[in-house]
Amino acid sequence: MDINGASAIVTGGASGIGAASARRLAARGAKVVIADLKAEEGEALAKEIDGVFVPVDVTNTDQIIAAIEKAVELGPLKAVVNSAGVGWAQRTIGRDGEFASAHDLDLYKKVIGINLIGTFDVTRLAATAMSRNEPGPSNERGAIVNLASVAAFDGQIGQAAYSSSKGGVVGMTLPVARDLSAVGVRLNTIAPGLIDTPIYGEGPESEAFKAKLGESVLFPKRLGVPDELASMVEELITNSYMNAEVIRVDGGIRMPPK
Prior knowledge:
By secondary structure, the chain is an alpha/beta fold. It has one domain (about 5-250): NAD(P)-binding Rossmann-like Domain (Rossmann fold, 3-Layer(aba) Sandwich), CATH 3.40.50. It has 8 helices and 7 strands; from the N terminus they run βαβαβαβαβααβααβ. The chain has helices at about 15-25, 40-50, 60-75, 105-130, 150-155, 160-180, 205-215, 225-240, and strands at about 5-10, 30-35, 50-55, 75-80, 140-145, 185-190, 245-250. It has a 7-stranded parallel beta sheet, sandwiched between helices. Strand 4, helix 4 and strand 5 form a beta-alpha-beta unit. The relative contact order is 0.15.
């Protein structure tokens, strides 16, 4: 699928995998809307790639619609990348046998709300806009890539909320792709492994920690870099025969319990 002259939206696009994906899509000629809460970073990246920054909380439907409307102003919306997400760790029950020590239910709902419901909300609204496009070759109107995680399959101790949310993203891939096939919109999901993003911090201690983490990767024994994920995003957007797939990009890692 050719995205030159079309518009694209990347949620969580101000940093990490989202930023790398935005750069890749812009290099393909797309006008990219950076949809994020990080205004300073988002505006700087938008300027760098000749795109637009729109402040978006993916739990706010009105803000999602505003980003889609801005994208449509720039060109037909043909590509969407859902990389906005959060993650917290907490065990399901406490050690003292008290109800109050069990997993914070509001925290669980928040992670589900951002990672799963937010992803679905962007998907349903963006696909609606894509359905209005003139069909291209193979009657294609657009493509969506969602970001899950290997935690969807190999959830570790304390990852109940995060793994639930990412498992939901994996689980909706096939049925949503089937729904969207009626209007010529493809949907795929990427499950990243350990990726070197700002979440790990900076400095010697951070580098030592990341090196230790990298030892658990099958090969190569290091963390992945955002552009290695973004290259797969680009492929899934532009390869018209990729649809309804969940692809692990993880160096072969299988996460241990902890």
